């Protein structure tokens, strides 16, 4: 397939606007789904090599042949936590289908996706979805598309993935309106057998370069990469290098390509991936930190960009934006926890991990993530895939302190590391630029929510007669805690929120310590703006009182800012004997009932961590991130 007949594109949409449904429909139209079921499909069928390699098709990246064109649908990680990765994937593409749910109109993520696509120089094809629904309102959506993106009505494709209406227009529009990849060579597309694959002749050196836009770890194959070949040919047997490997100078010897192919969306082994094509590739890469999303690849070391800018971009993207400490439930499981973490990290090299010892909780790990969603997914996987039970501290954001005298800028990843005020010239807090899109009538409520969170309004635009786009700069900590949920609540679900990192701002912050029976529990400490520190301290102490069970002795909880106690709560002692319920002893004859109660108590104990002789449940560690 010659270069003029290749197209690489993404589908961009706000959450739930119908991206997966439309992608499936397009594959069906191109005949890929028949192919998957072993149906007849001429163009690809003769070439088809079915191999049970068990490649996990994590991404919804898929190649289709339609009207004698090779169309590659490239999936991007949609969430802002992965902003850098999204930007890199877009470099493999020349166009974007921008979906707008006709029942909801343009939302914050639609706008963010549009900006990303436009900045990457992509051609945009707007697509209205869900037109079959009775409450669909295409006129309003069209007006917003014109108003916000300046795209005229006649460029918008009307569709319903449910009924199939309008979907036939999409692939012809992709061919007609999007440009082919630059400088792609005219080379035949062919699939081959495994034997032929292994016997492929080597290609000339120093000619290939490309980009990894997704990668994951597979137990059998090692790191599997989805790549876009920018130049030359990627072929079995070829030696290749990656940015991460070259920058880390971990190996001077490259990896070797073991297999390449296309995803349709199931893997189809090919002889080679030619210039302009996207597909999968794996070599003998055992360490996922050496082949990361966003890395350039090349068949020679000097083929890789090693300039400062690249280094800087790499550093910035891998700097965690959210931290949490985790501890094994039972101190003895520490080694097991480490093993699970190490294995999981092979899959996600953007997670940072280092051992940490908490005075209160013992040995654990400080984990760094790109965002809160990233963190939640990771913890979920830790439990699901490894059955590892942990106690995690509330997600915290890093702060900086400019030290008095030396002027040195110190970074505190967790509250316990924040240097005391006496040593500090000024503190800085991380910030976010936020964009909210909502119906006009909620404007007042939205302003109030941001004001309470020390947000600074930076812009308000009318999208049409009924909706506004509101921008703020707000402390990143506030975004982490509950901003999204609160905005949804005060707007009955109508607001959508997007955010991106902004430069840090000087802030009057203080560390609040929490003391349990006179001992400061480092894992419960938190950072707050001085103006709200006392109020938050009281709220956290009250929350702790409500979640910590009475024990056989009195428990005193205090919040302190420096030497000053700002809140005090008391949990009176209680003889905790489950065999006595409401003052009555459970009948001596009913042994199974007694056993059940004891088992229940044991299970209830599971997610607890002892601090001194006080047992703290998981919810105690989240107390500081809960607000009324
Ligand atoms: P995320 O991957 O979660 O962002 O969602 P998505 O954008 O991929 O949306 P998805 O395709 O999962 O669709 C979201 C919901 O809308 C699902 O319940 C779909 O069944 C429904 N949906 C998608 N397209 C249509 C459509 O054309 N008509 C109707 N009635 N429902 C649709």
TrEMBL record:
Enzyme Commission numbers on file: 3.6.5.n1
Q: List the catalytic activities from the record.
A: GTP + H2O = GDP + phosphate + H(+)
**Membrane-crossing residue ranges in chain numbering:** none
Gene Ontology CC entries for this record: mitochondrial inner membrane; mitochondrial matrix
Q: InterPro entries of this UniProt entry?
A: EF-4, EFG_III/V, EFG_V-like, LepA_C_sf, LepA_CTD, P-loop_NTPase, Small_GTP-bd, T_Tr_GTP-bd_dom
Q: Which GO terms describe its biological process?
A: positive regulation of translation; translation
Q: Where in the cell is it found?
A: Mitochondrion inner membrane
- Fetch the SUPFAM superfamilies from UniProt: EF-G C-terminal domain-like (SSF54980), P-loop containing nucleoside triphosphate hydrolases (SSF52540), Translation proteins (SSF50447)
Positions of the UniProt region annotated as Disordered: 582-610
> Where does the record place the Tr-type G domain?
4-182
Database matches in Gene3D superfamilies: 3.30.70.240, Elongation factor 4, C-terminal domain (3.30.70.2570), Elongation Factor G (Translational Gtpase), domain 3 (3.30.70.870), P-loop containing nucleotide triphosphate hydrolases (3.40.50.300), Translation factors (2.40.30.10)
Q: Which NCBIfam families match?
A: lepA, small_GTP
Query: Belongs to which family?
Result: Belongs to the GTP-binding elongation factor family. LepA subfamily.
Cross-referenced PANTHER family, in alphabetical order? TRANSLATION FACTOR GUF1, MITOCHONDRIAL, TRANSLATION FACTOR GUF1-RELATED
User: Would you tell me the protein name for this molecule?
Assistant: Translation factor GUF1 homolog, mitochondrial
Phylogenetic lineage: Eukaryota, Sar, Stramenopiles, Bigyra, Labyrinthulomycetes
């Amino acid at each position: 397939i010659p270069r003029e007949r290749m197209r690489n594109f993404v589908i961009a949409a706000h959450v739930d606007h119908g991206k997966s449904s439309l992608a499936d429909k397009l594959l069906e139209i191109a005949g890929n789904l028949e192919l998957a079921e072993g149906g007849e499909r001429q163009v690809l069928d003769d070439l088809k090599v079915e191999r049970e390699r068990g490649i996990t098709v994590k991404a919804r990246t898929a190649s289709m042949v339609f009207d004698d064109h090779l169309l590659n649908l490239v999936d991007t990680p949609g969430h802002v936590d992965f902003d850098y990765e999204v930007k890199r994937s877009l470099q493999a593409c020349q166009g974007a289908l921008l979906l707008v749910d006709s029942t909801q109109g343009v939302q914050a993520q639609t706008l963010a996706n549009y900006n990303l696509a436009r900045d990457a120089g992509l051609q945009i094809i707007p697509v209205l979805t869900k037109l079959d629904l009775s409450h669909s309102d295409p006129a309003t959506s069209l007006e917003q598309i014109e108003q916000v993106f300046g795209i005229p009505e006649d460029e918008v494709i009307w569709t319903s993935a449910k009924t199939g209406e309008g979907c036939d227009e999409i692939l012809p529009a992709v061919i007609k309106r999007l440009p082919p990849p630059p400088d792609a060579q005219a080379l035949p597309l062919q699939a081959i057998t495994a034997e032929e694959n292994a016997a492929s002749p080597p290609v000339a050196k120093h000619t290939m370069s490309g980009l990894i836009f997704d990668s994951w770890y597979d137990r059998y194959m090692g790191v599997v990469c989805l790549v876009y070949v920018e130049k030359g040919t990627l072929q079995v047997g070829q030696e290749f290098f990656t940015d991460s490997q070259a920058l880390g100078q971990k190996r001077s010897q490259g990896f070797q390509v073991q297999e390449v192919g296309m995803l349709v969306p199931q893997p189809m082994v090919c002889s080679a991936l030619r210039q302009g094509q996207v597909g999968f590739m794996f070599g003998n890469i055992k360490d996922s930190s050496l082949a990361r999303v966003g890395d350039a690849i090349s068949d020679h070391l000097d083929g890789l960009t090693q300039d400062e800018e690249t280094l800087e971009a790499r550093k910035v993207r891998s700097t965690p934006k959210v931290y949490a400490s985790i501890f094994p439930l039972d101190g003895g499981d520490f080694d097991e926890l480490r093993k699970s973490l190490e294995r999981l990290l092979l899959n996600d090299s953007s997670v940072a991990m280092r051992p940490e010892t908490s005075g209160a909780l013992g040995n654990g790990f400080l984990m760094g993530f790109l965002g809160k969603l990233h963190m939640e997914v990771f913890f979920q996987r830790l439990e699901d895939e490894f059955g590892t039970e942990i106690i995690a501290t509330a997600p915290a954001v890093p702060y900086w302190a400019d030290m008095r005298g030396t002027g040195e800028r110190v970074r505190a990843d967790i509250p316990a590391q924040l240097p005391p005020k006496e040593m500090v010239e000024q503190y800085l807090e991380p910030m976010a630029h936020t964009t909210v899109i909502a119906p006009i009538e909620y404007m007042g409520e939205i302003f109030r929510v941001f004001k309470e969170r020390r947000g600074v309004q930076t812009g308000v635009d009318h999208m049409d007669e009924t909706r506004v786009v509101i921008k703020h700069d707000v402390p990143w900590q506030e975004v982490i805690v509950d901003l999204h949920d609160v905005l949804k609540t005060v707007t009955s679900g109508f607001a959508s929120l997007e955010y991106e990192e902004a430069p840090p701002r000087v802030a009057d912050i203080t560390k609040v310590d929490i003391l349990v029976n006179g001992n400061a529990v480092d894992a419960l400490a938190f950072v707050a703006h001085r103006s709200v520190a006392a109020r938050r301290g009281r709220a956290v102490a009250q929350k702790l009182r409500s979640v910590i069970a009475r024990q056989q002795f009195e428990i005193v909880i205090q919040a302190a800012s420096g030497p000053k106690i700002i809140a005090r709560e008391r949990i009176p002692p209680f003889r905790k004997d489950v065999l006595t319920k409401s003052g009555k002893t459970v009948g001596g004859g009913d042994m199974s009932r007694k056993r059940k109660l004891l088992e229940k108590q044991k299970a209830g104990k599971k997610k607890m961590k002892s601090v001194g002789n006080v047992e703290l449940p998981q919810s105690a560690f989240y107390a500081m991130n809960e607000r009324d």
